Amino acid sequence: MNLQNRTINRYKNLFPNDTMRETSHRTGIQLTRIFRLFNGKPMKVKELEVFDELIRSQMKDQAILENIYQLLQEAEDLFTREEMNHLAHSLERRIKARSFKRKYFGYHTTQSA
Amino acid sequence: MKGLTSIERIVMDVLDKKKLIFDQISLESGIKDNIVYNILQSLVMREFIRTDGFHYWVKENLSQEQLQELHQKEYRRFEALEMIEAHIFQEKEREFKFQRIALSERDEKIFKAMLYNLESFLKDAHASSKEITPISQRKIIFWGLGEHQPILDNLIGA
Q: What is the ipTM of this complex?
C-alpha cells in the first residue's frame, strides 16, 4: 500500500463517521477534490501534509507507537520464542480481520445483474 | 497467515455443505456486503472455497495442509480467544462471569456433572435448531474450569 492510501486509511480509521463534506470542512480541501483523492487521484504534498497533521493531532500516535516499540523490545528480552510467535500471530490475525473492512474496487455479479 | 480469522471461519461455516450466492452468504453470516466480498476473495485465493462467479462453495478434497489450517488446535485457540475477547469488551447485552471459587472435592464433582449436563443440553438444542437458525442469529456460549496453579505458572512463564 502506498503512502497516500495508508494516510487515507488512517484518516478514515480515526474519523470513521466523517462524510466527505465533513472531511472537506476539516481539511479545507474542496469537496470535489476530496472525492477524487478518496478514489485514488494522486495527492499533492500539501494535501498529504494536511491529512498527516490531522492524524497526528487526533491520536498523538507517535507516543503510542513509541510505547509499542519499547514494549516489543522488552518482550523480546523476556518472552520465549514461542511467546513471541504467539504475540506476532495474534497481531497478524487482528490486522487481517480489520483489513477485510478496507474498501474494495472489485466487481461482483449479483443475481439481478 | 496460517489458519483462519474468526470472521473467515464464520463464512466457511455458512458455506458448510452448501452452495450459496453472495447475498445469501451476507445474510446468513450477518457480515456486511463489502466485508463478505473481501473475505470471499481471500478464501478463493487461498483455495478454501470455489466460485463460478456467482455461487460459492467449500472446495471438495481440501489438501492435508488446508485441513490442518482449518482444524489445528493452535489456530482454533486463537479463534476462541478472539471471540471471547470481543465478547468481554462488548458494551451491550453482555453476560459474562469470571470467578475464583473455593470448591470442595464433592462440590467439584457436582459442578463437573452440571457441566456435562450443560454440554449435553446444548448439543441437543443445537441439533434441533441448527437447520432453522442462521449463523447470524446464533448465540456464543463458552464455559470452562481451570486449576489455579497451572494457569498462574503459564502467566508468569514458570
A: 0.80
Q: What is the pTM of this model?
A: 0.72
**pLDDT, tens only, A18-60:** 889 999 988 999 999 999 999 989 999 999 999 988 888 877 7
Contacts of B1 in chain A (CB under 8 A): 89, 92-93, 96
What's the N-to-C CA distance of chain B in angstroms? 29
Q: What is the CA radius of gyration of chain B?
A: 19
CATH number of B6-71: 1.10.10.10
Cβ pair B97, B144 in contact under 8 A = no
- Contacts across the A-B interface (CB distance below 8 Å): 48
Every domain of chain A and the residues it spans? 3-59, 61-99
- CB-based contact, B21 to chain A, within 8 Å: yes
Shortest Cα distance from B38 to chain A (angstroms)? 6
